[in-house]
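# step 3/5: fold
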Amino acid sequence: MPEKNQPENEWENNNILEEEWDALEEDEAREDKRKQPVFKIAAVIIIMAFIAFSYAWLPSVWKLNLDFLKQDKVLSEDDLVRRCKPAVVNIKTTKTGGAVTQGTGFNLEPRGMIVTNRHLVEGASTIEVTFSDDKRLFSQDIDVIDGYDLAVVWLKNKNLPFLPVAADQIAEIGQSVTIIGNPRGFQRVSSRGKVKEYYKTDDDMLVFTIAVAIAPGSSGSPVLDEQGHLVGIIYAAGKVVIDGKEQNRAIAIPATALDHLSKE
């Protein structure tokens, strides 16, 4: 078994990568607000120059960034994936200063109980939630869960698709689980792997790892058991070295962290 402290630097690097991806999205959002032609022309020139400069190495980076889509192609017709996808949402937040970020969340109640990561929505002035049928809902009603990188966005709607929760049950070591999220802006991408181990973070937060590759934007994705019940929530990713070889890991918070959470 790898040492518990070994992957932490890797996970910190991944968090930096995710912040950089969010920053790119923020830049794009600000660019859309520019109305004058001179800015549009300048943007086109910069993009063309960047492509010309990077053409030699762009294919390898593109391939790397799309690795997480390989398994999704296989799982796209899986019955569990098709049943659960409608309850997985895209979350777009606007924070102080106009910064815009996007991530994943999922719904647990017909009226709208959206679970996601705390770091995605905390401090947001506006939260936009989009379902698979392009239904868009807005909220400023947020609860954070103490001791966890988790938050709940409450909606006031009805008959929304939702996921069932595996009550008082945690994923077992070796159990096969499925993740559905929005990595790199792609919507409702699915992946599947086995639960590898449980441990506590430096902040005393209980988490478990899954042997599967995920990409930035997957934060807040649901982790589902073989019946499609929620057993965890993705919050980070990293790598471990076993027998001299790097292996990908998704890191999730057990769904038991949501026990007894409800809004009257």
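# step 4/5: annotate
The chain is about 25% helix and 35% strand.
# step 5/5: archive (pending)
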